[in-house]
Each structure stands twice: as structure tokens, then as C-alpha cells.
Amino acid sequence: MLTLPESYGDNRGKGYRGELEIEIRDRHGRVLDQIRENNIIKIYAKEILAHQIPYSKVWDPDADSGNGGWVSSGIDVDEEFAPKYILFGASFDEDGVALDSSDTRFYTPDPLTGLNIPRTLGPGAEFDGSLINPIPISEPTRALKRIERIYFEPSYQPAGTPLLQDDVRAINNVMVLETTLRADEYNGLGTSESDYFTITEAALVGGKALGSDVGACECLPDVLFREGHTDGTPLAALLAGTDVVNIDSSEAAYVDVIKEGDQVKIVGLTTDGEGSDTLDQVSQFYLVTEKDVGSLSLRLDRAPTDSEGSPLTGTVGIYREGLRIFSHRILSNPVKKASEIVLVVRWRIIWA
């Protein structure tokens, strides 16, 4: 059994964790400052392992007329589960004015020191499954930030019997995912210094591979990964008060948009492309535990209910949610972006 214990806090304990590093440079490449913060990796990172380790085929001794051969394993080795993006959020109000660490969505005063400290993030699909206040996408100056470099760093383990021999060996068990916010990127919603983004949160994200053809839009990142109709509206589905959802027969052309293992979002059928009608649910997000290819019926991990616990019934809308946040961090030290500043962002996953 492969055990991946999680750990919080400092580097002394072994565990399955992450580390966020932001290197602040001037436009000439000189390093001005460096920020490093430990961070736990969410359960979705285990989902990467679950979908990437198995081979897509297994050996069948009876295949090829009894000679044996490789056949489909039934495991969907889907690279969509791999992390591809680092998304950012910032503290700005509805007028685009930066709020910095005084933004109560991100920070709360420490009762002892009076300083603003990051709020605690929960383990679930908070903030509508996205970031607290994600920076809207507008290519190229506010691009969807894709991971631009992947490499490995070594840690050192005993080469002989632990505690008895002094010799050690390097093991490449630290994976680094890197992207760079260039001098002309993420400089705010306006042109004055007060408009520059104060980056207060970052998230390591998986999802489908989106190229440069995303184009210019003022949409939020999670909207790009939400799937329903091509016009952005949800698929029609019927709830009967149980954990079974039946997609309407009129949606036959979209029957396999949602697959077993997907996360889905249930909304009001008349909702807009933002999926903002919550139907008074505590959480709109569900895991599809059973769905056959070509079937209009699927089973969720729980029966959809409203905030009072009453089962939802009738016709609703359903989306496939393709944004998967593996790790999410509110920065202890918010970083101010400006046209003279380059930020090199590295997300480390430490396989202890």
C-alpha cells in the first residue's frame, strides 16, 4: 500500500505537502526579494496519482486466440487531472481599487499583535469552487497563467541503514512547477500605481489544456473549465429527491460530457453562464460515483438538498466542473505587482 501522510507546519515532519515560492525581480532580472510559504496539498493531488500511475492496458492471457495480449484496463488515464496552471487572486474592490492586506475576504486582525493574518481556508469547494477573488482573464496582459517549466530537485536520504551510517544519497522527490508573471502582465485594471494588483492568493490548478486561442475575455478562470452547452448554459436534468440524476433526453448530444469520476455543479435551469443560481444549496458541487458511457443517468456521492436539508426535486441545470484546485494559499505577505516587477512563481510538491 502506498501511504501519503499529510502534514502541516514546518519542514521537520515527513508528509505530502507543497511549498509556494515567489521570487520578485526587477525587469533586468535582479532578485529583489524571495517569499516561501509551506502549504498542504489538497485531496485532488491524490487524484492525480490515482489517474496517472495505472497503465491504460492490462495483460489478458486469453487474448489473441489464447496467446495473450494487452487489452484496455478500463482506467481512464486522463491528463486533464494533471496540474497545468497557477491562478492568482488579488485584493481589489468593485471599482478595481487595490485593498492590500486590509481586505477582510483574505485577512483578519490577530487579537494579540493587531497585524492582519491570513484567514483559514477550509477543505471543501469554497468560493464557488474557485478562488476568493480571482483576477479576471484578459489576454495577453492578464493571461491564463499556464505552467511554463517543470523540473525536479533532490532531497537527501540515508544510503545505508538509517541512523547507523553517515552516507546519504540524493533522491529527486521534489517536483517544481514554475510560471512567470512578466513585466507587462498582471499590472492591474487601470494604469495608475494604485491600480496595480496586490496578489493575495495563488492556486495550483488542473483542468483541460487550453491554448492561446482562449483569446481576450473578462471572464473568471473557472468559467473556461465549466462544461455544459456550447453557449455556456447548463444541461437540463431531473432530480427526484435521491442521489440519482437523470439528464433530460433532449440533451442526448451531450450525453458523455459528464463522466464517472467528474465533479459536477447543480444550478437553477434558468441560470446564466456563470452558474450563479445556487438553489439554496450549502454546496453546489457533487462527485459522480457511477455513470455508464452513453447513459443519461448518473449517481452522485449524495442526494442534492437545500440549506434546510430538504431534497431537491424537479428540473435543474447541471455542469461538469473541470477546474480542479490541488492547492490554494492566501499569502502571508501580499505581493504588489507593477510594470517594473517580474514575479517568478514556483510551486513545489514534496514527495516525502
Q: Can you give a write-up of this model?
A:
The chain has 2 domains: 16-53 and 61-222 and 324-351, no CATH class; 226-321, Elongation Factor Tu (Ef-tu), domain 3. 28% of the residues are buried. The chain has helices at residues 44-52, 126-129, 221-224; strands at 16-26, 31-40, 57-60, 69-72, 83-90, 107-109, 116-118, 149-158, 168-181, 198-206, 226-227, 235-240, 244-247, 263-267, 285-290, 297-300, 313-321, 324-336, 341-351. By secondary structure, it is mainly beta.
In the residues, how many domains can be counted? 2
Strand content: 35-45%
Please give the largest β-sheet: 6 strands, antiparallel, barrel
- As an assembly, this protein is single chain
Unreliable runs? 1-15
Order of helices and strands: EEHEEEEEHEEEHEEEEEEEEE
Note the main attributes of this structure.
352 residues; mainly beta; Elongation Factor Tu (Ef-tu), domain 3; 6-stranded antiparallel barrel; 5-stranded antiparallel beta sheet; 3 helices; 5% helix; globular
Summarize the structure.
The chain is mainly beta and 352 residues long.
Helix/strand layout:
Blueprint: E1 16-26, E2 31-40, H1 44-52, E3 57-60, E4 69-72, E5 83-90, E6 107-109, E7 116-118, H2 126-129, E8 149-158, E9 168-181, E10 198-206, H3 221-224, E11 226-227, E12 235-240, E13 244-247, E14 263-267, E15 285-290, E16 297-300, E17 313-321, E18 324-336, E19 341-351
Antiparallel strand pairs: 1-2, 1-19, 3-4, 5-10, 6-7, 8-9, 9-19, 10-18, 11-17, 12-13, 12-17, 13-16, 14-15, 14-17, 15-16
